[in-house]
Amino acid sequence: MHRHDHARTERIGMPEAVLCDAKNVEQVRNIAIELAAAANSPCLFTRLTLEQFEALPADIVHRFDVDPLSRTAFLDGTLPTRPGRVAVVAAGTSDAPVAAEVVRTLQFSGVSGELIVDVGVAGIWRLQERLDDIAAADIVIAVAGMDAALVSVLGGLIGRPIVAVPTSVGYGVAAGGSTALNSSLASCAQGVTVVNIDNGFGAACAAVRMLSLLDAPSQRDDR
Amino acid sequence: MHRHDHARTERIGMPEAVLCDAKNVEQVRNIAIELAAAANSPCLFTRLTLEQFEALPADIVHRFDVDPLSRTAFLDGTLPTRPGRVAVVAAGTSDAPVAAEVVRTLQFSGVSGELIVDVGVAGIWRLQERLDDIAAADIVIAVAGMDAALVSVLGGLIGRPIVAVPTSVGYGVAAGGSTALNSSLASCAQGVTVVNIDNGFGAACAAVRMLSLLDAPSQRDDR
Amino acid sequence: MHRHDHARTERIGMPEAVLCDAKNVEQVRNIAIELAAAANSPCLFTRLTLEQFEALPADIVHRFDVDPLSRTAFLDGTLPTRPGRVAVVAAGTSDAPVAAEVVRTLQFSGVSGELIVDVGVAGIWRLQERLDDIAAADIVIAVAGMDAALVSVLGGLIGRPIVAVPTSVGYGVAAGGSTALNSSLASCAQGVTVVNIDNGFGAACAAVRMLSLLDAPSQRDDR
Amino acid sequence: MHRHDHARTERIGMPEAVLCDAKNVEQVRNIAIELAAAANSPCLFTRLTLEQFEALPADIVHRFDVDPLSRTAFLDGTLPTRPGRVAVVAAGTSDAPVAAEVVRTLQFSGVSGELIVDVGVAGIWRLQERLDDIAAADIVIAVAGMDAALVSVLGGLIGRPIVAVPTSVGYGVAAGGSTALNSSLASCAQGVTVVNIDNGFGAACAAVRMLSLLDAPSQRDDR
Amino acid sequence: MHRHDHARTERIGMPEAVLCDAKNVEQVRNIAIELAAAANSPCLFTRLTLEQFEALPADIVHRFDVDPLSRTAFLDGTLPTRPGRVAVVAAGTSDAPVAAEVVRTLQFSGVSGELIVDVGVAGIWRLQERLDDIAAADIVIAVAGMDAALVSVLGGLIGRPIVAVPTSVGYGVAAGGSTALNSSLASCAQGVTVVNIDNGFGAACAAVRMLSLLDAPSQRDDR
Amino acid sequence: MHRHDHARTERIGMPEAVLCDAKNVEQVRNIAIELAAAANSPCLFTRLTLEQFEALPADIVHRFDVDPLSRTAFLDGTLPTRPGRVAVVAAGTSDAPVAAEVVRTLQFSGVSGELIVDVGVAGIWRLQERLDDIAAADIVIAVAGMDAALVSVLGGLIGRPIVAVPTSVGYGVAAGGSTALNSSLASCAQGVTVVNIDNGFGAACAAVRMLSLLDAPSQRDDR
Amino acid sequence: MHRHDHARTERIGMPEAVLCDAKNVEQVRNIAIELAAAANSPCLFTRLTLEQFEALPADIVHRFDVDPLSRTAFLDGTLPTRPGRVAVVAAGTSDAPVAAEVVRTLQFSGVSGELIVDVGVAGIWRLQERLDDIAAADIVIAVAGMDAALVSVLGGLIGRPIVAVPTSVGYGVAAGGSTALNSSLASCAQGVTVVNIDNGFGAACAAVRMLSLLDAPSQRDDR
Amino acid sequence: MHRHDHARTERIGMPEAVLCDAKNVEQVRNIAIELAAAANSPCLFTRLTLEQFEALPADIVHRFDVDPLSRTAFLDGTLPTRPGRVAVVAAGTSDAPVAAEVVRTLQFSGVSGELIVDVGVAGIWRLQERLDDIAAADIVIAVAGMDAALVSVLGGLIGRPIVAVPTSVGYGVAAGGSTALNSSLASCAQGVTVVNIDNGFGAACAAVRMLSLLDAPSQRDDR
Predict the structure, then answer these.
(1) E86-128 confidence digits (pLDDT tens)
(2) Interface contact B199-F118, CB threshold 8 A
(3) What is the pLDDT, as a whole number, of residue B4?
(4) Using beta carbons and an 8 Å cutoff, which residues of B are at the interface with C?
(5) Closest-CA residue in chain C for B123?
(6) Are B109 and B202 found together in one domain?
């Protein structure tokens, strides 16, 4: 039996999630049945394949809200809304699936996320047109593959927290995303942080962690 | 002539810093003279070698506050104090120089930072003894080399933002820090973010970005 | 003709095994026919594909005990039972196939193996609930992908032999298993040993080698 | 203050050790003073440089037993002797420092270790001359750089536990030890386990873990 | 139009060959038609897929001698026989396709090649049984994946030229063949040479180059 | 005796140069003596160490024009001036030695080069201030380490040829320059070309090749 | 909605292009519809799959000029012809698709490109036969996989700009193209520049940038 | 005590050699004393440092023939001369130390070796001038760093055995020699074989193995 970590949301406020990537169809189906039966709280499924989704039992499938582009599903809705706004900035159309995973994970977590796409630095005027929108957010999540130059340019223009999500988009030295990853880590802009390649889920969770700073002003006052 | 970016602190609130690592003694000396003459605002020097420090002109050297372990120096003091508290958690004594760079950069930025060392997971009871201290901070910066298991353990116990700083400590597959880096990026704990290997300065800057969320409640209200 | 190493079990006590991974359907079929005809002793097939299994001749297929999850098959039963108990600890559901290969190879070798799953360190309380079970075993085999932090945590809590099996589970820097491998090799817990990525068979064989220490007390006395 | 893990030996039976590699002279000196003052139990220093050793205070230096080849030192003797015998087999003279670290760590742990050198497979008759000695040990630790072919040859001839220690000896593709490491991990001999490159200390600790199987027959009986 | 190098065999005595791997079906078909029309001399096709073979025109297909295991085809027979004998030694069944490419390329080149399989060093007695056969050859080609320990063992026992062909067989660190390649290059046996991973064709061509030393005794006498 | 390629400048118009990096003091001295005696044409020495320079014979040293920052020397002046202007743009002070090698090689080749430094994208307003200067050049050479984001930003703003020179500046994933190299190769800006890490000489030579397009209008007309 | 960069051609003279590689069928279809409706200027599609092409709406498909080998399509013709001639030199038949992408991108950009194939250095006489043709071009683009030796040989014979396009053709160490890439970057021929693996589009764009030197003689005169 | 392999020369005809690289001064001194006392046969020392040489005892040092460039020493002369001639071809002056190791190892082995330097393909006319000399040898050893294009060019022009020795000369992607190694392995010229980076000793030993084909015509006749 799958031993799901029902305590995680309660203990550290992180969304409960099932990464379907390395699980087979039967494993995902069994976990879904078990979670649906327990009905503890909303649950997020990420990297869900079409085949895995179609194998869900008919009696519970209506409880899932599925999004094909991001390959995510919500079981029993989302978590309560919480304060804070996140700008999700993507360099190009090819980064759309990862950016969508960020937005959907934010949505599941009750956080408002705005998607801003096609603002790669090769046409930097397009980025400049959207800069005010981006600067108004509490947190910026930059989704970029290839050279990930977008991350450094944003880092030099914005003082808010910036989380880079390198994507595996590209060919040759860009294939697999290690160039985007290393470029983000070596960014000349200070204080940018990075998550694993294509890890839109993780970037959104990082934003949730950061937004917890808005939750508890009283605790902070008495220090 | 060195074209220093006096505008950066003003524009995005980041500390003004000079990375001395890849500069020769004469270059650092010239930048120091120039910055001391301009006297715009406090400035941070990182990865300063002893030789570079000793080459500073006698008439300005008293304006520098130097710390050998972290290899940092403050020119003309620090930035004003700001709200927020950061726990800097290091797995072992060998990680001390990088952890010290984090603490000193926080200090320069006006942020309170507490250092908690020798809490590696190979003796997990030592970490558990300090867990309450760590959990009380607004942000946790985890400094760890080798397997960086500390990052994942903290990530599962703490809901606040966690920034991992992989260190280059170790030999064999650990040498250079790529194992610690990849382990942090692949952490099974969700929402942990990562900076470049040995980049204590960057992790502290990331905390400064995050703490900006505490600065402007009014801006957030009117959205 | 395939020249099988019938002498190996006899000489060094290791199970006789056929790695089907890089062999084509015809090669596996021919080896199976030959071994079935020789009928020397039980034989283990690992990484057997469904297609390879279905190509076995009808007159010998009943002599095979097949397990799809672990992709293993026993020809003519198992080796005699031997003393010793092994705990097979897996971080997550995704590691199940490799963990199953460990358990099946132990079973084939006559060794008692207990599977303990879903005890990743991101929810360390789940591991702590099972710690007594794990500590009671003679040998612990830790199956973990991604950051393999489980290996280090176990290594700090348990004094028995620990064999890490890194798995290729994961995406980005975790893909292929080299992060889990390097993290295990660089573990801050002393005396942990490691086998190749996804090599559940090898970890079980290592346990068999170690359990040979229980076989021959007399030999040891007279030194 | 250094927070040493005095509990480790007691809890999991592993030797207490200080890895001096990434610590500076002052850090090692301070740890030595502190441990000497505590006088809890014998302690092992590994990868100790000459400079670090010479900086030890005069009043405690006589309590250290130092060995230059292995770069190890014992503070206040060794742990009590325990049953079991380990053969430490090294391919060539160049592997001697790592092999010496294995032998010294075994000695510190109270375990009998025999060193067998210059038995590389390029002159396989030399290995065959020593095979009976090797086969009589409880555990074999194979120390080998370059192609590490010794590991596979031993693995095919010996049924006892075999721990491979890849060394960083060599040039070109052998430099740094990753070829020896990967070759050991990919060994065609089943059940060989591996530790990090040049990690003689870890291999000896692994042997200590394995020899714990000889300690407690009664515990095993009552299962 | 394909500009085939009809001059190569004549100029340097190497077999004329078409590597079909990276060519599409139409490209291979066109080259075959062109070469068949020219009818200059026998020609070797390597890494020919079934699909490529089946697309050959009906009127020339009978002029091809095809071998599925090695994925080779001869157009218009082979080159004249020449003196010299080559032993092709393969560690395991999984290396069979590459070993077959060696043997077929030798056959095409008019050289006698003997295949000796399943002599991996994990069961070194099997290698010893065949050693006299191997030692009697003019040249030894060792085909081995994973740790390629066979290469070093042969190199220590045989004084004739040894060419190692690393294979891409295996999983984990062995996958793709770089471990076998590096292990062969770092072999502790002196004077072993190496070709690219899976390059059975190249190893056979190297043997043809070496056997040219037997062709022209008179030229050598007069120096 | 050194066999210098006196024909190269004549045949393909490239500057004659001696790369001193991998040569010992005696080798450089001998080549210098030989070239000075031949006195064919000006010659460029690159990556010249201080020790190599100081070992030049007293009777020829006055014929050398040495520049310590770029580690270059001209023997017997420079090549004739030629049309065309190159902007050499460097992200930071740390890139100065490589940028200086570009400028000096251009100067040796008779080409006008303007150095524009400290225009990294983390402070993009500094780049924008210099954009008109950069856009007025025939060719832009972008010298950048770390994330090399400067390359992509320039590539999106400038239509002239852009040659990226990645530098080995930086630490962690930036160390050695492979991140800057891969980021430049994967640039989202189209038509940027790249030379080897730290190869300022090569970038200048590439500019010389490109400027040859200005030399021969008549040749182009008659096609 | 896709935010296409209509300004790029106008601003920096680069062709407007859609990289279809990492986009799904629906994304490419939507971009095509949008661009066809805007009808601003000709547009180039690269790495277009057959499936993507077949999904284009019937009412606009006739406006596309498709080439299967290069996987390119032109929407609404090409850009106006411009002066300059480019030789596209490919080592072998396997490099044909990438060479075709170069030629098609040149054609789209209004540049004359001549394809010269099967001139690999293993048969250097074939290259010598075509040398005059190659030398007569303004720019040489060398398309080569495996060892990319063609790049260095051309670099030593030709004084015009040379752009190397490494290809991913090959197996073993050649697979993926990194050997060809690194070999081109490390070329012993000075002033060769390089683009990403398989980036025929980028090489052609680099040529367009270089040919802009022929456009504006007057601008150059008045400096 | 060092267990030297006195049997190797006798058994397989390879020269007896001591690789001094990874041995300390004392180890080399002890081996030298031991070998000098045994006085079995001439012995070759490779990668001998000046410090190691100067530590040899005064009473035996006269029996050593030392060469600083190649870092080799002969103890008690060389092996008897044997038939065959080897051309050692080096691309540049920087490859001289490795080329010298080849020539000295040949000389020690009794083989005639001719050194041909400065024939890199960037000035291919220099290679063509020497081609007849090279083609007249029995075996060609090509010593080349960076792109190693020399290997492929020779491979296309010469039908004799060719052994490539990649060198670690160069910077950026060439540093360490892996580019030269991979380029040699991926050579488009068929039948070239390769040894480890900088392994001049190994290449000469490979030639000795190949020249054994000239030793025993009678053995070959009776097959």
Answers:
(1) 999 998 889 999 999 999 999 999 999 999 998 888 888 889 8
(2) no
(3) 53
(4) 91-92, 120-124, 146-149, 151-153, 155-157, 170, 172-174, 178-180, 182-190
(5) C156
(6) yes
Q: Are residues G92 and G67 in the same domain?
A: no
- Percent of chain A predicted with pLDDT > 90: 79
> Of the candidates E196, E205, E213, which has its C-beta nearest H186's C-beta?
E196
Neighbours of chain D (3+ CB pairs under 8 A): B, C, E, H
Question: Once rounded to an integer, what is the mean pLDDT over residues C100-116?
Answer: 97
User: Cβ of G146 and H189 within 8 Å?
Assistant: no
Strands C85-90 and C139-144: parallel
- Both C194 and C173 in one domain: the answer is yes
Say whether the ipTM exceeds 0.90.
Answer: yes
3-class secondary-structure state, position G145:
coil
Classify strands G162-166 and G139-144 as parallel, antiparallel or unpaired: parallel
All residues of chain D having their beta carbon less than 8 Å from the beta carbon of residue H199 are 171-172
pTM assigned to the model = 0.95
* Whole-number pLDDT of residue G215: 78
User: Do residues E29 and E128 both lie within one domain?
Assistant: no
Instruction: Provide Rg for chain A, Cα atoms.
Output: 18
Q: For residue H191, give the CATH number of its domain.
A: 3.40.50.1970
Kindly report the average pLDDT of chain G as a whole number.
90
Best of B183, B187, B190 to mutate (most C CBs within 10 Å, chain C): B183
Tally the domains of chain C.
2
What residues in C contact A31, CB-CB < 8 Å?
Answer: 93
Q: Which of H31, H57, H75 is the last residue of a domain?
A: H75
**The last residue of a domain, from among G21, G54, G75:** G75
Residues with Cβ within 8 Å of residue G87, at least 6 apart in sequence: G113, G114, G116, G133, G134, G136, G137, G139, G140, G141
Half-sphere CA count of H213, side-chain side, radius 13 A: 30
In order of B87, B155, B157, C153, the CA distances from B132 in angstroms are 11, 14, 10, 20
Q: Are residues B91 and B175 in the same domain?
A: yes
When the pLDDT of each residue in chain E is averaged and rounded to a whole number, the result is 90
Smallest Cα–Cα separation from F215: which of F31, F26, F82? F82
Q: Tens of pLDDT along H72-81?
A: 999 999 999 9
Residue B217 counted as domain residue = no
Together in a domain, B55 and B108: no
Q: Give the residues across from C85 on adjacent strands.
A: C112
Single-letter amino acid code for the residue at H142: A
Mean pLDDT over each residue of chain A, to the nearest integer = 90
Mean pLDDT of E79-85: 94
Q: Which residues pair with C163 in a beta bridge?
A: C141, C193
Enumerate the H helices of B67-159 as residue ranges: 96-108, 124-129, 131-135, 149-157
Same domain assignment for residues C119 and C34 = no
Amino acid at B214: L
Pairing assessment for the beta strands F112-116 and F139-144 based on DSSP bridges = unpaired
Same domain? For F171 and F128 the reply is yes
Residue among H191, H202, H220 whose CB faces E190 most closely: H202
Identify the domain containing residue D50 by its residue range.
8-75
Number of Cβ atoms within 10 Å of the Cβ of G38: 11
Facing residue for B118 by CB, picked from D3, D19, D176: D3
Q: Is pLDDT of F1 > 80?
A: no
Judging contacts by C-beta atoms under 8 Å, the chain B residues touching residue A84 are 213, 220
Sort A176 into a burial class: Cβ within 10 Å, 0-12 / 13-18 / 19+: buried
Question: Which string of DSSP letters, residue by residue, matches H23-87?
Answer: S-HHHHHHHHHHHHHH--S-EEEES--HHHHHTS-HHHHTTEEEETTTTEEEES--PPP-S-EEE
CA proximity to B175, closest of B203, B153, B158, B197: B197
Q: What is the mean pLDDT of residues F110-136?
A: 91
Residues of E with CB under 8 A from a CB of G: 2-5, 7-8, 19, 21-23, 27, 31, 47, 166, 168, 176-178, 181, 196-199
Residue G125 has pLDDT above 60, yes or no: yes
